[in-house]
Amino acid sequence: MSEELDLAPGAGPSLTGVEGERLLTTGEFARRGLLSAKALRLYDRQGLLPPDRIDPVSGYRYYRPERLATARLIVRLRGLDMPLATVAEVLALPGPAAAGRIAAYWAAVERRTASQRALADHLRVQLSGLEGIEDMYRIEQREVPEQLVLTERRRARPQELPEFIGGATARLAGLAAGLGGVAGAPFVVYHGQVDEDNDGPVEVCVPVDPARAAGPTAPHRVEPAHREAYTTLTKAQVEYPQILSAYDAVCEWLEAHGAARSGPGREVYFTDWDAAGPADPVCDIAFPVGG
User: Within 13 Å, how many C-alpha atoms sit on residue 128's CB side?
Assistant: First the structure.
């Protein structure tokens, strides 16, 4: 049973190639490739799916039937909201590498979606006057022993925090290696407000074993033993500004339980940040509690 030719205006008549292969018109190729003629023209302009032949007299465009697989792949990649530039990368790669590029793209989409979900939750509780915030975060308490910590301190805006925290933690961990290694979870203390209008200051702290750290030359101090209230966040929840909801949740809990803060808020990073996924727990938001 032969297929009916698409002879819509501008589609052109069917054509037989130089080796007897039947070429498909623009209209027929678009229909069988599951895309619109408008999309086909766009992909032609972008170099993703150029025609195999253009009639020099009529200007009709023709495609080989075996190119339908590429057309259908483009349609499905676009179904992932994949940008055309990324589609071009996938098409240029061999099968296994193309599969890896799709996996990397989708992992980035999931990270972005998780971050946007956390941001939506943050905006919802902020605009509702913190209504429902107690359901978003589980608040716990723990005892923290005295620690000797190497420190690096500076003023920083929110957009500067990721680079400063990551860089300072790596530098201090390098110094700790000569003092017996890192002896606990690194943490970041906010000695002042950090937002669009305020810059802290911010202090990165890396614990070392005082029994093995004989007179460290790096800036250091003793973090006193204390009790703290804290909540644990996923990687997606750590981004600014959604992280602020966690600080609000701990402060609300302290107020509701009549507990006074005895020190500034902090972030305790207890796992490998780079290896963690969006839904993995990575950080505690904590406040020292007095009395």
Answer: 12
